[in-house]
Amino acid sequence: MAHPTPRLILETLLPALRVAAAYAHQVQPYIAARPDKAADNFFGAALSDADLSVQTFIEVALLGSFPSIRFYGEEYERSYNTKYFRAIDLGEQDDYLVTLDPIDGTQFYLDGHSNYQIILGVLNRDDFEAVIAVTPAQKTYCYALRGQGCWQGKLEDSLDDCQPLRIQPSDAPIFLGWQMAGLAPLLIDRYSVISVATDYSKTTQIPNVNGILTGELTGVVIRKGQFIDGAALAFFAREAGGIATLHDGSPLPPLDQCQKYQAPGLIIASSTTVHQDLVTAIEKHSADTN
Fold first, then answer.
1. What global pTM score does this model have?
2. Backbone φ, ψ for residue 121 (5° rounding)
3. pLDDT tens-digit profile of 236-262?
4. Which of 8, 109, 134, 192 gives 118 a disulfide partner, CB atoms 3.0 to 4.6 angstroms apart?
């Protein structure tokens, strides 16, 4: 099958994702860190045995089920299987690219926290078609299909058994990603603020970006939206009734206009009020620092 539907890809890979989730959960207490990757912060640099093992397992499932699929995994440079995929980049319209973050939140994972995920996306040339995110420690997952909405369920549930997921406005905190801490003084009069650069703890779990879907967060600002994680979570938010834009409030660009598998800085918000407050804070911070 040259171009399987996005839903078929999710349905076919869900059993493998369940096994990968069980593996990740089982080995977490004993997991070995590997030498850091090149990155500009310790979160991006974190790498574990589980990252490599989960990616290899999903690659095997993909090649066995869809041998002509395009695939880009976070650890493609270290993978034995990259050379067996037809391509690792975006193709023409409807020639889908599957992406994978084998352990989203590797530093959280290495420190024993429970809010890491396995995120798999199906990307078209212009936008995401589908994303599925498994949370192994909580034995849950959620998925979204382009223009059709977002659903959540227990790990053993089929896609059809999952329930609709809608983001609700709340008084939960704002999450500021790496290099976004300068926005905190402009927000603390109205919101609780969690800045990953200053508030991350090895012993006390803080929300990750995926907290926008669970109600742990009401807004998120990140300096870039990688296709494999941040941009995928923004797609979830859009399909779940939230708002996802660039820092200036403009719509996200088509994927084929992005560089290096990532969109520019993103805002993800639960409501128009939160979104506008974040746009205003970014504008003021930019004006004050220029």
1. 0.93
2. -120, 155
3. 999 999 999 999 999 999 999 999 999
4. 134
Tokens for 90? 């975006």
Spell out the domain ranges in the chain.
Answer: 6-164, 174-289
C-beta of residue 149 within 8 angstroms of C-beta of residue 140:
no
**Using CA of residue 254, residue 196, residue 58, residue 10, what is the dihedral sign?**
negative
Q: pLDDT by residue (tens digit) across 116-129?
A: 999 999 999 999 99
Q: Per CATH, the architecture of 174-289 is what?
A: 3-Layer(aba) Sandwich (3.40)
| Run of H or E residues at 230 | helix 230-239
Residue 80, Cβ density class (10 Å: 0-12 exposed, 13-18 middle, ≥19 buried): exposed
User: In the structure encoding, which two tokens stand for residue 252, read together?
Assistant: 């996200």
> Rounded to whole angstroms, how far apart are CA atoms 76 and 83?
9
Q: What is the band of 31 on the pLDDT scale with cuts at 50, 70, 90?
A: confident
E strands, 67-116, in order: 70-73, 97-104
Span of 34-48, 81-95, 104-118, 186-200 with lowest mean pLDDT: 34-48
CATH code for residues 6-164: 3.30.540.10
Token pair listed for 55: 């990616």
Q: Determine the angle formed by the axes of helices 6-27 and 49-65, rounding to 10 degrees.
A: 150
